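Cont'd.
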Amino acid sequence: MSGVQQPVPSQGGAAVGPRPRQAVIDMVAYSPPTSGRAGNLRLDFNENTVGIPSWLLEKIRARLDAEHLAVYPEYEQIRPKLARHFGVHENELVLTNGTDEAIQLLVNTYVNAGDRVIVLRPSYAMYRFYAQLAGAQLVEIPYHATDLSFPMEELLQALAWQTRLVLLANPNNPTGTTIPLDQLRALLTAAPQTAILVDEAYYEFSGITALPLIYEFPNLFVSRTFSKAYGLASLRLGCLFSRSSNTAWLRKAQSPYSVNGFAVLAAEVLLEEPGYVEEYARQVKSAREKLCQALTERGIRFFPSQANFVLIQVGDRTRLFCEAMRRRGVLVRDRSYELPGCVRVTVGTPDQVERFIAALDEVWS
Amino acid sequence: MSGVQQPVPSQGGAAVGPRPRQAVIDMVAYSPPTSGRAGNLRLDFNENTVGIPSWLLEKIRARLDAEHLAVYPEYEQIRPKLARHFGVHENELVLTNGTDEAIQLLVNTYVNAGDRVIVLRPSYAMYRFYAQLAGAQLVEIPYHATDLSFPMEELLQALAWQTRLVLLANPNNPTGTTIPLDQLRALLTAAPQTAILVDEAYYEFSGITALPLIYEFPNLFVSRTFSKAYGLASLRLGCLFSRSSNTAWLRKAQSPYSVNGFAVLAAEVLLEEPGYVEEYARQVKSAREKLCQALTERGIRFFPSQANFVLIQVGDRTRLFCEAMRRRGVLVRDRSYELPGCVRVTVGTPDQVERFIAALDEVWS
């Protein structure tokens, strides 16, 4: 998601209210563009582009009742089911209000103002957001400019200074590139006192996971989300995994009702029939191949991706390109502010890739 | 809600992972008891005890679709509707993931570690929770022991020291007592650089609101919730109000998708027909009178309340009392850890009060 600048409140005028913390004044504003997306081909947020199957929706609808809406969320039923689904013990899992709360929870638990936090650039904007909000000393390490590969050497060097938290995405957004597991092992070994998050929001499309490594490395945290392959971005449900000695601290720092009860209800239904997620991921991987082939045939440059999106180099008119695509009902994401000439395109089904290519051909000519 | 102690993670053993912040180690754990509540008469969490009307539930059900679940939440449609409903400008309102996020947002925006924060005691547990999480210097001022009235003089004295944030509930939970508006004005005037939250979670049952005062006092913040009278505790929807110069800072410090899209959908439906909230509040007020009369007739002491709950003095066996009521299918809340001899009982409809009294009579004899 983007780091678009938004207007900062005026400091002038008479009574302006209490002064915010300096960290809030200093932080980079983050305001992703999200309105009026429904009805378009949504290739701009890496969501599930078709949504859950209608028969699962019917099951969710049937379980909805007024009493369930009126009571505070209960997590006792869903936790063992999630644990089984992800292959961990119940005590190794924390439910979160999307991956965003997982990030915030890690920062709140481990990072004091002034502490050193490392993030990569470009990566998911909320890593920087929460680190800055906490007043952390933020260190940003750039991905390699030529092939957007993981800057392993630079990160290892940066870890020579005492660091409280490293926030990584694997595969990374928006680059689509992955971190090999042996490199992750080397990082976890190099900084045993540093909490290291591996955000696996796009795991279902890459098949690479560090989750079993939580039994090997007590400084490892892994997050997963229901917002991408699972088709529940609206409901804000994520899971954060680590050793039980760590999750006990995370839960102590967590608000008791951050995850809503409807997300819990929906997840309970979906976990009974999770096959649709695999099927969707299979379609995306096939569509990704199709998209890359079409781009290659047209001589359009792109970065190979292990996620459900591809970075395409459209040249210096990214804004015009995105607008022209939008006029054709296709939403894509301008990432040129951090990757010159680049637009990020979510990969949906093979049919949706065809629709994207048709619009691309009109715009390109 | 209660501040029950929960076990703290062991520090022993071999590899225990990164050390959490001292503030997290030091904070009082908060773990409200919530499981297996459905099917009982729920008089323990001050929720709406009957839920939204079934015809409104049908409308919500009808609008649910797979695309809506798959996309990130959009707030552009609901914000002007909420603003109209509460009688403020759209820029004077921040949507929050329950009142809990409103409290966290105020702390994140205004409170650095070491800054002074004032809360009352007893009051809603999350005020202390977020202040401690931030590493604030927490000052707790006790309510007057005899009649649980608001300690105005003590609070004014405490405000003589530079304070970043004051967190108040009106009516207060669990006391049920209110803060007169002229006293609120005096506080807002006395500490113009201090952010003062008036949490009006129970406003619908008291009819007293500080909301119009945001135009007079740039240091005032008011919160409302859909978790109590509105019957949506499951969905975690709250609103935080202040001058637009303040809300702009709050929004800058807020995660962009903290409120889930289903809460937005449900609120859109309910705001079209909000009459049920007034009708429910009317029933609760009538039932509250009935309850207090029944307690008086039985010579059982209680504290008069402006909220949808009443503190009842059941003597030194509060735990046994709560268990005996639970065996009769009636859930009430033991508050004796902060108010000796006291149990908090949510007021529902007049019929539910009758059911409560019948169970009480069995237990009492």
